[in-house]
C-alpha cells in the first residue's frame, strides 16, 4: 500500500507564514491601518514633514529673523510714537497732527512689523514647497506618499500653524518690549485690552494666510525665485500700482487685494471706502482657498 499521507495539521511555521507575510505587506501599504490605500498614515507624514521643517538651517534663520523684525519694529514704533507725543506737548502743529490721528496710537505699536513678517513667512511657505522640486526631494517624498495630497496637507498644516504661533509670540514680545519705552513718554499700552488681543489674533491669522498662499505659489510655480517674486508682486507691488493707476475700477479692485483686508478686520469702527469686516474675511479666505485647491489639484495631475 502507498505510504503517502496528507498532513491535516500544518506546521506552526507554515500556519503563521502566510498571515504574517500578508499582514506585514498590508502594514507596509497602509501604514498603521488608520488610512486606506498605499502610503503611511497622515500622522506619520505630518511628523516627517515637521522633522524636515525644523531641521533645516534656512528655516531656523527665517523664523529667527521674523522674531527680530517684529520685536525690532515694535520697539522702533514705540520710540517714534513717544517722540511724536513729546513734540505735541510743545509744538501746536505737532499737537494738531497728533490729534488728527485719532484713537489710541499705542495699540498698533506691537503689530507695526507685520508687513515684514508676512514677507518672511510667506517666502518660507514658498521655499517649503518649491525646494522639493528644485532639489529633487519631491521624488522621495511622493515615493513614500504616493497619494501626494497627505504630504501637501501636512506641509500646509506645519507652515500655517508655525506662522500663526510665531507671529502671536513675536507680537506679544514686541508689546512687552514696547511697554517701558512708551512709559518713558507717559504713554500707556494695555496688552490685555480687547483691541490689543484682536490685533494680535487677526495679525497672526493674516500672516498664516500669507504663508499658505506662499506655499501654494511654490507648488504652482515650482521655482523659489518665481514664487517669491509672485508673492512680493501680490502683496507689495499690486497695491501701489492699483493706487497709482487712475480709474474707478482700480480704486474698487484695490479693496479686494489680500493685503488690504487687514485694516477692515482690525478697525474699531468701519473705515469709509473699505470692505466690511465680514467681507474682508471672505475675501482673505478666498485668496487662501483658491490657490490651495488649485495647487492640490495640479500636484495630483502633474509629474514630479
Q: Strand pairing plus helix content: what structural class?
A: mainly alpha
Fraction of residues in β-strands: under 5%
How many strand elements? 0
Largest sheet: number of strands, sense, barrel closure: none
Tell the overall outline.
globular
Q: Poorly predicted ranges (pLDDT <50, ≥5 residues)?
A: 1-35
| N→C terminal distance | 66 Å
SSE sequence, one letter per element? HHHHHHHHHHHH
Q: What's the helical proportion of residues? A: over 70%
Radius of gyration: 27 Å
Task: Give me some keywords for this one.
304 residues; disordered N terminus; globular; mainly alpha; 12 helices
Structural summary, described in words:
The protein has 304 residues and is mainly alpha-helical. It has one domain. Helix content is 74%, strand content 0%. It has twelve helices and no strands. The longest helix has 35 residues, at 149-183. The protein is globular and about 70 Å long.
Quick recap:
The chain is an all-alpha fold and 304 residues long.
Task: Give the topology.
Elements: H1 12-30, H2 42-55, H3 57-88, H4 92-101, H5 114-134, H6 137-144, H7 149-183, H8 194-221, H9 224-244, H10 248-253, H11 262-266, H12 277-301
Helix pairs in contact: 2-7, 3-4, 3-5, 3-7, 5-6, 5-7, 5-8, 5-9, 7-8, 8-9, 8-12
Amino acid at each position: 500500500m502507498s505510504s503517502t499521507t496528507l498532513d491535516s495539521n500544518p506546521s506552526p511555521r507554515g500556519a503563521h507564514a502566510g498571515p504574517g507575510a500578508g499582514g506585514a505587506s498590508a502594514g507596509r501599504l497602509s501604514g498603521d491601518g488608520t488610512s486606506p490605500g498605499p502610503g503611511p498614515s497622515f500622522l506619520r507624514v505630518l511628523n516627517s514633514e515637521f522633522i524636515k521643517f525644523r531641521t533645516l538651517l534656512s528655516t531656523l534663520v527665517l523664523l529667527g529673523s521674523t522674531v527680530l523684525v517684529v520685536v525690532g519694529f515694535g520697539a522702533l514704533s514705540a520710540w517714534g510714537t513717544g517722540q511724536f507725543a513729546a513734540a505735541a506737548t510743545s509744538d501746536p502743529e505737532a499737537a494738531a497732527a497728533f490729534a488728527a490721528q485719532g484713537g489710541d496710537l499705542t495699540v498698533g505699536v506691537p503689530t507695526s512689523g507685520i508687513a515684514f513678517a508676512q514677507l518672511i513667512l510667506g517666502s518660507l511657505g514658498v521655499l517649503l514647497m518649491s525646494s522639493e522640486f528644485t532639489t529633487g526631494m519631491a521624488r522621495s517624498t511622493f515615493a513614500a506618499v504616493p497619494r501626494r495630497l497627505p504630504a501637501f496637507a501636512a506641509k500646509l498644516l506645519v507652515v500655517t500653524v508655525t506662522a500663526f504661533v510665531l507671529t502671536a509670540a513675536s507680537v506679544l514680545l514686541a508689546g512687552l518690549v514696547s511697554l517701558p519705552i512708551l512709559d518713558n513718554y507717559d504713554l500707556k499700552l494695555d496688552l490685555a485690552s480687547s483691541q490689543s488681543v484682536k490685533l494680535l489674533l487677526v495679525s497672526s491669522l493674516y500672516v498664516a494666510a500669507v504663508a499658505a498662499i506662499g506655499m501654494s505659489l511654490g507648488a504652482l510655480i515650482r521655482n523659489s525665485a518665481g514664487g517669491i517674486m509672485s508673492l512680493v508682486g501680490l502683496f507689495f507691488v499690486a497695491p501701489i500700482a492699483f493706487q497709482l493707476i487712475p480709474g474707478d475700477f482700480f480704486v474698487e479692485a484695490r479693496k479686494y487685494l489680500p493685503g488690504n483686508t487687514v485694516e477692515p478686520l482690525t478697525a474699531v469702527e468701519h473705515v469709509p471706502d473699505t470692505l466690511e469686516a465680514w467681507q474682508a474675511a471672505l475675501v482673505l479666505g478666498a485668496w487662501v482657498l483658491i490657490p490651495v485647491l488649485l495647487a492640490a489639484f495640479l500636484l495630483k495631475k502633474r509629474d514630479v
